[in-house]
Design brief:
alpha/beta; Rossmann fold; 2 domains; 7-stranded mixed β-sheet; two-stranded antiparallel sheet; 9 strands; globular; binds S-adenosylmethionine
Length: 245
């Protein structure tokens, strides 16, 4: 059976495209067999080939790490438009957001942080200044009150909804990358509360959310003292907050 047929039989919708990428990634026929077997077993394509395309850039992705979604490109565009001098990719996962911002904003100082050591090791393959720890605790203290923009694509799936996610996410991305607590907003609330101590006056915090959660996410930003709005574009929803000057 050809690679395309095996992928199609396993339920891969874009079997031709995936087969081409697996052939490109393989260094030998044995390696190709290994890669196809991994994909057929359900491993996300990005984990099999070791990279994902995000904002036109190839981002290294290691197994277990959250695969950046195209809808998150909205956050990158919003942050780019602000032309920040200092920007933090909070809850960075692979560091996809920070890596694109570093490329788009060569004069900016870009920092990134994540609590998951596997994600931190992956992000360090994509950018420098990556710190490990719980939210802002990970960052150097001297950044307090010196950050222009925090981009935080936090986990926001309600705990009980994780079981309804596609198996590729549910079974192969770290639980800490998905689980947002009972209503999905636990981490977002903590980021919003802490951001006031780290942003410059007039600085911005932006987070992705879902349409369903947008009302409560907006309230969380407002309660944390930020002047906040909801921004939508195609399938993406973001909350953008400004710390009053
Ligand atoms: C939805 S993923 C987003 C990853 C990346 N920003 C992206 O868009 O591809 C959320 C990330 O938040 C991290 N995370 C979860 N809780 C955290 C915490 N308390 N402090 C720092 N990072 C956290 C997870 O390890 C995961 O990498």
């Amino acid at each position: 059976m050809s690679t395309v047929d095996r992928l199609r039989a396993a339920g891969c919708v874009f079997a031709e495209d995936e087969a081409a990428l697996l052939h490109e990634a393989a260094v030998s026929p044995e390696h190709l067999e290994e890669l196809v077997a991994q994909r057929v077993s359900g491993l996300p394509l990005e984990h099999v080939v070791g990279w994902a395309e995000f904002c036109g850039q190839r981002i290294t992705i290691t197994k277990g790490v959250f695969v950046p979604r195209h809808r998150t490109e909205l956050l990158v565009d919003l942050a780019t438009d602000l032309n920040p001098g200092t920007v933090v990719d909070m809850c960075c996962g692979s560091g996809a957001i920070g890596a694109v911002l570093r490329q788009r904003l060569p004069k900016a100082s870009v920092y990134a942080a994540d609590i998951d050591p596997v994600a931190v090791a992956c992000a360090r393959k994509n950018l420098t200044n990556v710190f490990e720890g719980d939210l802002f605790d990970a960052l150097p203290r001297e950044l307090q009150k010196h950050i222009d923009v925090v981009v935080a694509n936090v986990p926001y799936v309600p705990t009980d909804d994780i079981r309804f996610m596609p198996p590729e996410a549910r079974d192969f991305e770290a639980r800490v990358a998905l689980n947002g607590g009972t209503d999905g907003l636990d981490v977002l609330r903590r980021v919003a509360e802490q951001a006031a101590y780290w942003l410059k006056p007039g600085g911005h915090l932006m987070s992705e959310t879902s349409t369903r959660q947008a009302h409560d996410a907006l309230a969380a930003f407002t309660q944390a003292g930020l002047t906040a709005t909801v921004v939508t574009s195609e399938d993406a929803t973001a909350i953008v907050g400004i710390l009053p000057a």
